Amino acid sequence: MNRYPLWTYVLVALAVVLGLLYTLPNFFGEAPAVQISSAKATLKVDAAVLARVEETLKKSGIQPTGLFQDASSIKVRLADTDTQLKAKDLINQGLNPDPQNPSYTVALNLLSSSPSWLTAIHALPMYLGLDLRGGVHFLLQVDMKAALTKRLDALAGDVRSQLRDKSIRHAGIAREPSGVVIRFRDAETRAKARKLIEDQLSDLLLAEADDGTEFRLTGAIKPEAQKRTQEFALKQNIQTLHNRINELGVAEPVIQQQGSDRVVVQLPGVQDTAKAKEILGRTATLEIRMVDEENMNGAALAAAAQGQVPFGSEYYVERNGQPLVVKKQVVLTGERLTDAQPGFDNQTQEPAVHLTLDAAGARIFRDVTRESVGKRMAILLFEKGKGEVVTAPVIRSEIGGGRVQISGRMSTVEANDTALLLRAGSLAAPMEIVEERTVGPSLGAENIKKGFDSTIYGFAAISAFMIVYYVV
Q1: Residue 73: closest CA among 292, 268, 279
Q2: pLDDT of residue 91
Q3: What's the distance, CA 246 to chain centroid?
Q4: Rounded Cα–Cα distance for residues 30 and 78 (Å)
Q5: Cβ atoms of 77 and 64 closer than 8 Å
Q6: DSSP output for 364-413
Q7: pLDDT value at 80 more than 60
Q8: DSSP structure class, residue 334
Q9: Helical H runs in 143-293?
Q10: pLDDT tens digits for 244-267?
């Protein structure tokens, strides 16, 4: 017989033992579970929420087989599907007293039934795709027309800022369906404006038009800029979908581009299709607006609370419960932000959020703050069509250079949360679900069973052959 050194046998035995050990989680299968995540970007799933979930289950006599908390969600593993459905309803009622405005998303899910000691050594089950595990499949369409409209709106604001900076007088700037129209009183001023805009805003294709004594300059987005805008919208939406789907706890979801304006989303193992759709559509939009200072007195606020809001303004309530009248005109949107980091005010040492704007955003913000020293600026978050004022700080001085600080009435935790929220971004363009399919795991279960059987039978046949050939 062939002889090998002892270390060779030890190494082979160790490899076999480790292989078997890290294969074990696949034999335990999965158990029904309930997952709780935040339905609002300004809320956190913390230890207090975990305690409420435990108390709700305890009162109802439901004993979970596992309770897990991570950075963004709480997962409750249960013994069977009947208990899972009952627990979901109870937790949903306990955490969301107002069903029309839920604070938390309670969804059905599946969790590995592996013992905790296997999970502790990072022995995890093999993740199966949609064809083997079942789940949901969505096809979403991006509204590219809306993306181009948003880009044109931004360019119109940039044109206004550029002409103001260079003291070039115009007779009006208007947004029309075809593009941006700028009116001048003489051809010489129009020529100066055209040269400036062509130098600073290369995405605009300019053309001159005269109407009697009025000299016009029309601008439309260049074809190459349109393509770039659409590609950016698609990429940003895909990234935002990744952030939202992480809340469902789906392992290895498939999110990929299909064609020029569609996104395919596949979520293996997700049982609750309605909740999956809810989270996919739960993308937040950030806006910065000015507070309507003229209507912040007691009588005006009382009238606004009763629905008598001044024209051009909207009524909100801050997170601390203070009423606020905010102008409808949007100063900046989240797409102008390049970074947001928590920190402290250098003068007062209060918690603050430090923002970095892109070049166009820096110009807009500088102009607005120069004209609005001593006034309040509101940062709003829109989710599911409902707006919430995150903070409304006072502008203390002109802010240039693209570096912005938000401070006032914020704790350290709130500063961290606000920075995270601002970095998360928003949809560059609206999306709608054009196709939805629920894939059952029955075919996958059959294939998995056949795979296990073939492996076992093959191994048994090879073992029998080797015993007969080498021993007998």
Answers
A1: 279
A2: 92
A3: 9
A4: 10
A5: yes
A6: HHHHHHHH-TTSBEEEEEEETTEEEEEE--B--S---TTEEEEESS--HH
A7: yes
A8: G
A9: 144-165, 187-200, 223-245, 273-280
A10: 676 555 656 888 899 888 999 888
